[in-house]
Every structure is written in structure tokens, then in C-alpha cells.
UniProtKB/TrEMBL annotation:
The keyword Cytoplasm does not apply. It holds the Pfam family Methyltransf_11. This is SAM-dependent methyltransferase. The keyword Methyltransferase applies. It comes from Actinomadura namibiensis. InterPro entries: Erg6_SMT_methyltransf, Methyltransf_11, SAM-dependent_MTases_sf. The lineage of its organism: Bacteria, Bacillati, Actinomycetota, Actinomycetes, Streptosporangiales.
């Protein structure tokens, strides 16, 4: 995500829905949010919980920041209406057969005026992965659909969200997944896949200028993920005296 577009201020209550290993939850925690890392996978959540504790012990988070893990189903979020200031749903909707129901739950628990950031695999890179490997998308818990950005935006607009813009990300990751699909998604010993994976780890850890420029150039056409930002419209205030008179 672009935190210039999705600004998180200390003390905001933020849900990371489908947090997985916790990448976004950790960054939200560092920014001082009150984070809820939510997922169905208890094993993943146990790892996220340990990392939250380690981050606190190492002084990586502001004193007022809070973080917790919650296990549950995206189709029935265990939170009250209008509960969160912001929500992240990263690389999760493509796994959910009833995605519209999950979207309605996101709308329900987000405060009016709150922001939602959604990422899903971009259509072209994902289409190639599906064509190269059946295992890529038929494994249990795998992807059940390929979104176009227009479809994703239309569904969330129909749910009640307003679209606020988009961009693509992870252009360097797309060739890696094409290689993995070509040689076998479970073939971790393939020399080319291993070498490319080392490059990606180096890029993530060191953020060198060369790879940053390369990814910036690749993102618009080969970005592995599309990131779309939404807002839950604020409820209209009670009508003014003038509006009441005009209505009469």
C-alpha cells in the first residue's frame, strides 16, 4: 500500500482482514495504530502474535500503539457496526467464494468516512499464472477467481463504497511467479526460481535504487497486485432549517 494515500495516524483502530503472516499488520503497528490482525488460520495468527510481542520488547512501536489477533470468518466478522477507522484487505478476496458477502461485512464494520485499502492479484499476471499451472489455483484455499480492476471496483461500489483511486505494485514479483508456475509451484529446488527468490529477498531487505527504479517502471504493466482505495461515505447530517423549509 501507499501510506501517502492511506494515511494511518496514531490511535486509529485498524483492521487487517485476512492478515496472513502479518506484513501489513506489523507496519500499521509501527505507525501507532490500534491493530486487529484477523484471519481464519490459527497457526498464522500465533506467529503474528509472537511478532507483535517481539516488536513491543524491541521498542519498534510507539507506546500508545496496541495490537491483537482475532480468529474468525470473513463472512461473519465478530465486530460491531462502524467499529474501525480503516481496514486493509490484502490478497484475500480472491480466496473467498462469496466475496460480495465479505465486502458487505467490511462496509458494516467500517466507520462512515473510513477508508478501505484492497489488494488483489492483477488480471494479466494472474491470467498467465493460471495458464501455466493448474496447481497454482486449484490447491485447497487457493484463488477462486481472477479480478479485473473494473470488476473489483464495481462490486465494492455496489456494496456501498466510493472508489478513491488505484495503482499497481510488485512488478518484480511477477516474473518470479511465472517461473514458479512453469517449473512447478512446489518445486522449491529449481535453480532459476531459487536465484530469483534471492534477488527478491535482497530487494525487500536492502531496497537498492536499481531495483526500486526497475519496479517503478514495471508496475504499470506487470505489477503482480492492483491496489484500490475506497471510502465508506459519511452519513448525511440532519437536514438544516433551510432544507426543511425548501422541502415543504
Amino acid at each position: 500500500m501507499d501510506f501517502q494515500r492511506f494515511r494511518v495516524t496514531p490511535g486509529e483502530r485498524v483492521l487487517d482482514m485476512g492478515c496472513g503472516a502479518g506484513r501489513h499488520a506489523f507496519e500499521l503497528y509501527r505507525r501507532g495504530a490500534h491493530v486487529v490482525a484477523f484471519d481464519l488460520d490459527a497457526e498464522e495468527l500465533a506467529g503474528v502474535e509472537k511478532m507483535f510481542g517481539a516488536m513491543r520488547l524491541e521498542g519498534e512501536v510507539p507506546e500508545q500503539a496496541r495490537a491483537e489477533t482475532v480468529r474468525g470468518d470473513a463472512l461473519d466478522l465478530p465486530f460491531p457496526d462502524d467499529h474501525f477507522d480503516k481496514i486493509v484487505a490484502s490478497e484475500v478476496l480472491e480466496h473467498i467464494p462469496d466475496d460480495m458477502r465479505a465486502m458487505r461485512e467490511l462496509l458494516r464494520v467500517l466507520k462512515p468516512g473510513g477508508q478501505l485499502a484492497v489488494t488483489v492479484p492483477a488480471w494479466l499476471p494472474e491470467r498467465v499464472c493460471w495458464a501455466l499451472s493448474e496447481d497454482y489455483h486449484t490447491a485447497p484455499g487457493g484463488h477462486v477467481r481472477i479480478y479485473t480492476r473494473a470488476e473489483l471496483e464495481a462490486k465494492l461500489k455496489a456494496t456501498g463504497f466510493r472508489v478513491d483511486g488505484h495503482h499497481h505494485a510488485h512488478g518484480l514479483h511477477t516474473p518470479y511467479w511465472w517461473i514458479k508456475c512453469a517449473v512447478g509451484v512446489n518445486n522449491d529446488g529449481n535453480p532459476l526460481a531459487k536465484a530469483y527468490h534471492q534477488v527478491l529477498v535482497w530487494d525487500i531487505m536492502k531496497r537498492p535504487l536499481a531495483t526500486r527504479l526497475a519496479e517503478k517502471a514495471l508496475n504499470p504493466v506487470l505489477g503482480k497486485s492492483v491496489v484500490v482505495y475506497f471510502t465508506k461515505p459519511a452519513r448525511r447530517d440532519a437536514p438544516s432549517t433551510k432544507e426543511k423549509v425548501d422541502a415543504v
